[in-house]
Specification:
Bound molecules: pyridoxal-5'-phosphate
Shape: globular
Radius of gyration: 28 Å
CATH topology of the largest domain: Aspartate Aminotransferase, domain 2
Catalytic activity: L-seryl-tRNA(Sec) + selenophosphate + H(+) = L-selenocysteinyl-tRNA(Sec) + phosphate
Number of helices: 20
Pathway: Aminoacyl-tRNA biosynthesis; selenocysteinyl-tRNA(Sec) biosynthesis; selenocysteinyl-tRNA(Sec) from L-seryl-tRNA(Sec) (bacterial route): step 1/1
Function: Converts seryl-tRNA(Sec) to selenocysteinyl-tRNA(Sec) required for selenoprotein biosynthesis.
GO cellular component, one term: cytoplasm
Strand content: 15-25%
Helix content: 40-55%
Distance between the termini: 30 Å
Number of domains: 3
Strand order of the largest sheet: 3-11-10-9-8-4-7
Number of strands: 16
Largest sheet: 7 strands, mixed
GO biological process, one term: selenocysteine incorporation
């Protein structure tokens, strides 16, 4: 019963030479707390087992405290390898930014800037002015304003324009994006009354016409971002809905979702309607995301008629939804890359990933396959395989990009499910986790997002993977 009292005291452990490095790295408060927890944990374990021989010594307790501290101080937001095949992966942070944006953010973090300061007059400036001209030039719109994300952009537009009146939307466009964003819910929060027209698969011009009344505030089109309705379908074009709206002196708004600034067909990518095309179709307001196809920071961009944008900027919600300086610092140089379209596919990170060739990724797969096979040993079979990536974040949900990567299958069919799970877990527990995709009894690593600059880190981690997997193995055979 007295075995726990053989445990070294917290004070003694704090004096121990091994503790010195912990004290200097983590400080007295955190180290003392970690050692206290390690001792308490050991005491509980002893009470459970009553095995005096298993009482840990000072070094073991300090090692446990060290591990707990390292875990506690490790960053929670970690770099990962996105080998899921989805380039704009919302859960993995969507767009990766170009170097110009990274440099501008670093500078904005470290020094004061003219965020809301007019350097010409010395008076107060408007943060939107930093990017408004550029956005207008790239989209053909009269005016622009920026908020926290596209969901905020939609909320702000509806709140400004509808104020207790009705917004007309097709039933085929009442989308939900990633659970928390649903057009009907946003409408309600914005104080708009949703008037649904048409059916899920077919909406006609007359459906919009018939729904217009004195209570109507606007007609709205929503981009079907993450789904496609196929078969017997009919929707009304932006231009037609605009015509109907304008015939009744009503504004027409488009939630474009991803919203690209350039025609992607010039890089043999599938066509996605551009912001400019939407403005040219007559839309009075268009909202889109900064971190989807645009390839910039999280932001919601609202473009459209000058008078409407001015009205939106006066809404008190604008202040609540405004962007910070880091967003603007990142957005400006990203937009500027679009002024040089010939270089866009090399300098805009997301576009560079979209346009990687199959041959390039296949060569990379051939190069990595032997290293990964050696790491995983005979329990797994690693092969190179053609696969297909997705753009992601709701852009072009049914189109896929031919890609190449590695496919890993357990060698033995027996327990193959568990083995695959084990491998997937091991990859996620690396210092820089590797996130793949489980499909058809295999782990797929799509190499589209593994650029050559990251390949060395990927390879360097493989030995750690061996260690983690051999621990698993020991545990299961014990
Ligand atoms: C992605 C998307 C949104 C939400 O945009 P966030 O920038 O993620 O807030 C809204 N509407 C559509 C159609 C979308 O595709």
């Amino acid at each position: 019963m007295n075995a726990p009292f053989h445990l070294p005291s917290v004070d003694k452990l704090l004096q121990h030479p091994h503790t010195a490095t912990l004290l200097s790295a983590y400080g007295k408060t955190q180290t003392t707390q970690a050692i206290r927890s390690a001792v308490a944990e050991a005491r509980i374990q002893w009470l459970g087992s009553k095995n005096a021989a298993a009482t840990p010594n000072a070094e073991t307790l300090i090692a446990a405290a060290c591990q707990a501290l390292a875990q506690r101080f490790a960053p929670r937001l970690k770099s990962v390898f996105n080998l899921t095949g989805t380039v704009l992966h919302t859960n993995l942070g969507r767009a990766l930014l170009p170097q110009e944006a990274i440099d501008a953010v670093a500078q904005a973090l470290a020094t004061p800037s003219n965020l809301e300061y007019d350097l010409a007059t010395g008076g107060r400036g408007d943060r939107d002015d930093l990017v408004e001209d550029l956005i207008c030039e790239l989209t053909g719109a009269e005016a622009a304003t920026i908020v926290n994300n596209n969901a905020a952009a939609v909320l702000l537009c509806l709140s400004t324009l509808t104020a207790g009146r009705e917004a007309i939307v097709s039933r085929g466009e009442l989308v939900e994006i990633g659970g928390a964003f649903r057009i009907p819910d946003i409408m309600q929060r914005a104080g708009a009354t949703l008037v649904e027209v048409g059916t899920t698969n077919r909406t006609h011009a007359r459906d919009y016409e018939n729904a217009i009344s004195d209570a109507t505030a606007l007609l709205m089109k929503v981009h079907c971002s993450n789904y496609a309705i196929s078969g017997f379908t009919k929707s009304v074009s932006d231009a037609e809905v605009t015509q109907i709206a304008h015939a009744h002196q009503l504004p027409m708004m488009v939630d474009l979702g991803s919203g690209t600034l350039v025609d992607l067909r010039q890089w043999d990518l599938p066509h996605e309607v551009t912001v400019r095309e939407t403005i040219e179709a007559g839309a009075d307001l268009v909202t889109f995301s900064g971190d989807k196809l645009l390839g910039g920071p999280q932001a919601g961009i609202i473009v459209g008629r000058k008078a409407l944008i001015a009205q939106i900027k006066k809404n008190p919600l604008k202040r609540a939804l405004r962007v910070g300086k880091l967003t603007l610092a990142a957005l400006e140089p990203t937009l500027r890359l679009y002024l040089h379209p010939e270089q866009l596919a090399t300098r805009l990170t997301t576009l560079r990933l979209f346009t990687r060739t199959e041959q390039e990724m296949q060569a990379q797969a051939d190069q990595l396959q032997p290293a990964l096979q050696t790491t995983l040993g005979s329990a797994y079979q690693v092969s190179t395989a053609a696969m297909s990536s997705q753009i992601g974040s709701g852009a072009l949900p049914v189109e896929s990009l031919p890609s190449y990567g590695l496919m890993i299958r357990p060698t033995e069919r027996k327990h193959s499910g568990r083995q695959l799970q084990q491998l997937e877990t091991a990859m996620r527990s690396l210092a820089r986790p590797i996130i793949g995709r489980l499909q058809d009894d295999a782990l797929w690593l799509d190499l589209r997002c593994l650029e050559h600059t990251d390949q060395a880190t990927f390879i360097a981690q493989l030995s750690a993977l061996t260690t983690i997997l051999s621990h698993h193995h020991e545990r299961h055979s014990a």
